[in-house]
Amino acid sequence: LESGRMRRLKPMLHSLSPAEIGLLLESIPRTKRELVWRLVPEDDHGETLLHVNDEVRAELIDALDDDVLLAATEGMPIDDLADLIEDLPEQVTREVLHTMDLDNRERLEAVLSYPPDSAGGLMNNDTITVRPDVSLDVVRRYLQQRGTLPDDTESLFVISRYGRYLGMLTLAKLLTLDPERDVSEVMNTDIEALPVDMSAAQVAKRFQDLDLISAPVVDENEKLVGRITIDDVVDVIRDEAEHSIMSMAGLDEEEDVFAPIARSARRRATWLGANLLTAFLAAQVVGLFEATLSQVVALAVLMPIVASMGGIGGSQTLTLMIRGLSLGQIGFGNAKTLLIKELAVAIINGILWGAVVGVIAQVWFGNPTLGVIIAVALVINQIGAAIAGVAIPLAMKKMGIDPALAGSVVLTTITDVIGFGAFLGLGTLFLLR
Amino acid sequence: LESGRMRRLKPMLHSLSPAEIGLLLESIPRTKRELVWRLVPEDDHGETLLHVNDEVRAELIDALDDDVLLAATEGMPIDDLADLIEDLPEQVTREVLHTMDLDNRERLEAVLSYPPDSAGGLMNNDTITVRPDVSLDVVRRYLQQRGTLPDDTESLFVISRYGRYLGMLTLAKLLTLDPERDVSEVMNTDIEALPVDMSAAQVAKRFQDLDLISAPVVDENEKLVGRITIDDVVDVIRDEAEHSIMSMAGLDEEEDVFAPIARSARRRATWLGANLLTAFLAAQVVGLFEATLSQVVALAVLMPIVASMGGIGGSQTLTLMIRGLSLGQIGFGNAKTLLIKELAVAIINGILWGAVVGVIAQVWFGNPTLGVIIAVALVINQIGAAIAGVAIPLAMKKMGIDPALAGSVVLTTITDVIGFGAFLGLGTLFLLR
């Protein structure tokens, strides 16, 4: 960035939200990030670090001085601070804890004691609690005296004398209902508390299913330990969906788009290597038919078509399965019904496009037998693709492997092997003189 | 479902949320859905219809009597009703409008006048408004008198005498600040109103960027017309992410997993047909080298490897681009920098895996020239794949086509053509005697 553009950048950065600054940092090459960072308003430092992906964050933290980092953490909510602090250098973490008051330090340590992808890791423990046996008027006077509430507070939590979660009291009810009534009469007891060890994915599902805005988190003794607000859950929902897209191409959703070339190359190499193994398997199948191929070259010309159609058909079934599994639409219980449907679809489309390809092949090479063979091979491969598309993700799920991550590589191997095998095998049987 | 299981189902359905019932309906075969629907508690009818995908909803609506549908719409919030009503039979819609009071009908008609995927279509117009020149105490007494607030109200909206949006007043502030102060002193003016014609995707981005829970919607004259709450935005965020995953396999995210076979087959046929065209293009390239293939069969055996490695490398770049474009990380401005990085990664991995494949090919077929040729072809194809992976989505974006929808088909065509062309072309030059 030339100095002229830099001068215009500074006021622009002041008008952007930390999320937008984060996106800007992700979208410029590595070499320029430090320059731009220096123009980011200090107040936005902490939140901006939260909004960039893991790799860019690590890079910025490396480049920043300890006292800049320490200043960035000031005034951050506990749940956000908990996310950030694990990435900070140890020296800075110690400083942060040192400068906090005892109360906040204990709250931070409580959040840090849970895995980041659990309800405990997502929660903030700045809950405002009230007792069930007081009147709304008492609660109102208490809040008036308090003078301020934590961000995004739209409900208070009702707890027993022993800290057990009993219900929620929305601020809306507090303002509209008769002040003489007791909290216990008007509190909402419908919303079940989330166990502190619930997975982040399940928390996200609960929020979506019940359209929650905030929810209480309890420990194994039903004691209220914190609350989760929807803004933290939105990030989980987004990350989950992106994880599937990126995994299916062997990528990591936390990867920096402008990661150093060597690092990107190393990561992608693994994926290409895994694919190479499966490609060699397919080549080996083709190799079995060398003698046939040298006599009927048309088979070599047409064989990519059979393999490719199988791959496309299979990946449609696979994608439907991966999404259905993650939404909970599909499980072991209804997989058989789905398999039957997918098989029927595969057979119909196999016959349809098999016929089309068969006619074209026959005209192209003037060989009716070749046309029939490619049509039959295409049908066989569509059927194999449907079975593989349903079976692979279920098998992987059973083995505890993420189907989005490796499903497509395994699937293409199978459709390649079946496609080449069926087409060249039939060719060997019926076309060799 | 046998009658014993049906008996157990009824109490289970009563304990599920509408979202969970919706998921259950999506995950059972079509033939059983009507049976299960009869056991769904009537109170949940409306919301359950909202939680199933478009196809299942249409199917259920078809099967239900008009009076059941009419009953289902009772008591639904305006924004939800607006989503549902467009799918109802005309007769029912007329009934619904007829039975509503004038006030609600006008509000519903206002929401219906905007496209569903705009801020106007997402919003609910049940806002509680206050004037800036009254004291908090007056507002409190007004709410007390009102006795109830719309669901998920955590802020009031401050408007001028002419209905212009001025700011937001959180219930938290209303409860904690000095009641003698005026609304105008304490209202939050940071949150910009969303224009009523803003796209749903942009609304979602704004909510995520600013961690909003609700936001005001204004018309072209800055007049407040409604509010959007985060629970509606969460659905948009989810749908967007799913749209990419499903589009990349030529599927529709609103498709019923158990759609009728004929309908599924017809839809998938289009995708397979598009792919067939491109597969024939690749086959035609192979066909150019028939003479070479009949002399050097090893080329036929190895050619799928070159094509497949190109496809995998290219789809990694493509996925990175599709996601980067949708997040806003990548645009025309920084595409060149990204292209250079992707090219470097492609060259490194091309050389690495080209060398591996080259050595294996040489050992397998005992032909050193063949090893060199496949290595060079692999490098060329990786380079082509990187260029195509960056260029295709940008070109599609410029043409207004969704890169997620057709990107992968175009990409594989290009990597197949380059892969087969380079490998067989080099083979013809250097291996023919």
Can you tell me about this structure?
2 copies of one chain form a homodimer. Chain A has a 3-stranded mixed sheet. Chain A has a 3-stranded mixed sheet with strand order 4-5-6. The radius of gyration of chain A is 30 Å and the shape is elongated. Chain A is built from 21 helices and 6 strands. The first copy, chain A, has 3 domains: 3-116, MgtE N-terminal fold (Alpha Horseshoe), CATH 1.25.60; 129-247, CBS-domain; 261-431, Tetracycline Repressor, domain 2. The first copy, chain A, is mainly α and 433 residues long. In chain A, strand 1, helix 11 and strand 2 (155-159) form a beta-alpha-beta unit. The first copy, chain A, is 68% helix and 6% strand. In chain A, helix 2 (18-26) packs across helix 4 (45-51), helix 16 packs parallel to helix 21 and helix 18 (297-327) packs parallel to helix 20 (368-399). Chains A and B meet through helix 2, helix 11, helix 12, helix 14 and helix 15 of A and helix 2, helix 11, helix 12, helix 14 and helix 15 of B.
Low-confidence stretches of chain A at least 5 residues in length (pLDDT < 50)? none
Relative strand content of chain A: 5-15%
What is the CATH H-level superfamily of the largest domain in chain A? SLC41 divalent cation transporters, integral membrane domain
Biggest chain contact: A-B, 116 and 116 residues
The protein's oligomeric status is homodimer
Quote the CATH topology of the largest domain in chain A: Tetracycline Repressor, domain 2
* Number of separate strands of chain A: 6
How many alpha or pi helices of chain A?
21
Classification by helices and strands of chain A: mainly alpha
- Mean pLDDT of chain A comes to 90
Radius of gyration of chain A: 30 Å
Indicate the CATH architecture of the largest domain in chain A. Answer: Orthogonal Bundle
Summarize the biggest pleated sheet of chain A: 3 strands, mixed
Give the tally of structural domains of chain A. 3
Widest beta sheet: strand line-up of chain A: 1-2-3
Order of helices and strands of chain A: HHHHHHHHHHEHEEHHEHEEHHHHHHH
The CATH C-level class name of the largest domain in chain A? Mainly Alpha
Through-space gap between termini of chain A: 70 Å
Question: Which percent bin holds the helix content of chain A?
Answer: 55-70%
What global shape of chain A is seen? elongated
